[in-house]
Every structure is written in structure tokens, then in C-alpha cells.
Specification:
It contains seven helices and three strands; from the N terminus they run E-E-H-E-H-H-H-H-H-H. Helix content is about 40%, strand content about 10%. The protein has helices spanning about 30-40, 55-70, 110-125, 135-145, 150-160, 160-170, 175-195, and strands at about 5-15, 20-25, 45-55. A three-stranded antiparallel sheet has the order 2-1-3.
């Protein structure tokens, strides 16, 4: 784990933009090397996305939420067997090193697991009131469309995948850490621009 407690939530995408795997690690480079050596489906990975969260507990709760909501191709889902990977297939895109899937308990201390369970219980009780200024999913999409920005424009500015922005707008995933702060700031500026009737730069989605 990093000295400041930060932990990486990572997402692995295939050539078509399909989400293949979501995981948690404190050392991405080490995990990439192990993944390349041991994961039979690794040659399908064409893009990786890393989001640093303040604590391991934050990363674990986000990992569980994204696996349940987005159902990545190679994560295990409750009540289902490990996905069938089939024979390895070569791809034309440059492959970047990734990480071996791990159970969420691996390397976690007893206190971290207790904190994880507390956060899971809180999540099951329902969403907490928004206190940091992030609009609800429907309003996020409405603000972007009113400003005539594409999801890809938002994704490029925040250094995330376009599918991640789509998940934020559907409410199947939530931005965390630095990405959340930047997303709130961007939506505030887009809304102010729309309210002042300034002409935005990007074109609208079809």
C-alpha cells in the first residue's frame, strides 16, 4: 500500500470498449506483470484505466459496486462460475501489462475488512444525500447535452473511458476521489455556461 494510503481501482477494456475486468491494487506495475504471465485472456486487453482512491476500503467498495452493476467479462459474479475464456486470440492493438484477479480479502487487514463491511451495509441501506454538489445521474446527462458536449469530450478531459462517463450518467457507477472532484467542477462550469447562453465548443451527441 502507498504511504499515504491511496489504492488504485483499475479497469481493463477490450478492443470494442467492452469492460473485461475491474480490480484493486496498491502497485499497478507489479500486478500488470503478473497478469501478463498468468491470465489466459490478457491478450484481449487493449486499454487500462487507473483511478486512485484515498483508502483501500474506498477502492474495495467501489470495486464491488462496479462488478455488480457493470458485470465485467472476467470478474466472478455472485452465484455464477468463473467465465469461460476459451482459446487465446491475437489482437492487432498494442497490449499493455495488467493484473491478476484477486479476492477482495487478499492482503487486507482485519480493520480494513470491518470498514469494508460497514460501507457495504451503508450502501445496502440506500443512497446517502448528496452533500458535495454532484447532481444525480439524469441531471448529469442533461447538463452535458444542454452544453452540447459528447460523453467522449467529458471522458477525454477527466482522463477516463467514455463508457465510464456513460455509467456515471446511468447511475450504475459513481466517480470517486480526484475524478469526482473534477467531474463536479466540470458540471458546474457547463451548467453556468448554459445558463448564461454562451456558445459551447464541442458538438452535441447524435
Amino acid at each position: 500500500m502507498n504511504e499515504d494510503g491511496r489504492t488504485a481501482l483499475y479497469r481493463l477494456f477490450g478492443a470494442s470498449g467492452r469492460l473485461l475486468y475491474v480490480g484493486v491494487t496498491a502497485n499497478p506495475q507489479s500486478r500488470w506483470r503478473t497478469h501478463a504471465a498468468e491470465s489466459p485472456w490478457w491478450n484481449e486487453v487493449c486499454l487500462r484505466e487507473i483511478e486512485w482512491l484515498p483508502t483501500r476500503a474506498d477502492a474495495l467498495i467501489q470495486e464491488a459496486a462496479e462488478i455488480a452493476a457493470r458485470r465485467p467479462g472476467y470478474n466472478k459474479h455472485p452465484g455464477q462460475p468463473t467465465p469461460s475464456i476459451g482459446p487465446a486470440k491475437p489482437v492487432k492493438y498494442p497490449v499493455r501489462l495488467g493484473e491478476v484477479p484477486r479476492a477482495r480479502q487478499t492482503g487486507a487487514t482485519e480493520e480494513e475488512l470491518k470498514e469494508f463491511d460497514r460501507q457495504v451495509e451503508a450502501k445496502l441501506r440506500g443512497p446517502e444525500p448528496v452533500v458535495d454538489g454532484l447532481p444525480g445521474p439524469a441531471e448529469r446527462a442533461a447538463i452535458r447535452k444542454a452544453a452540447r458536449w459528447r460523453q467522449s469530450d467529458v471522458a477525454e478531459l477527466l482522463a477516463v473511458h467514455r463508457l465510464t462517463v456513460g455509467a456515471w450518467e446511468r447511475g450504475t457507477a459513481e466517480p470517486r476521489g480526484e475524478s469526482r472532484r473534477k467531474y463536479i467542477s466540470l458540471l458546474d462550469k457547463l451548467k453556468a455556461r448554459v445558463d448564461s447562453h454562451e456558445a459551447p465548443q464541442p458538438d452535441a451527441d447524435a
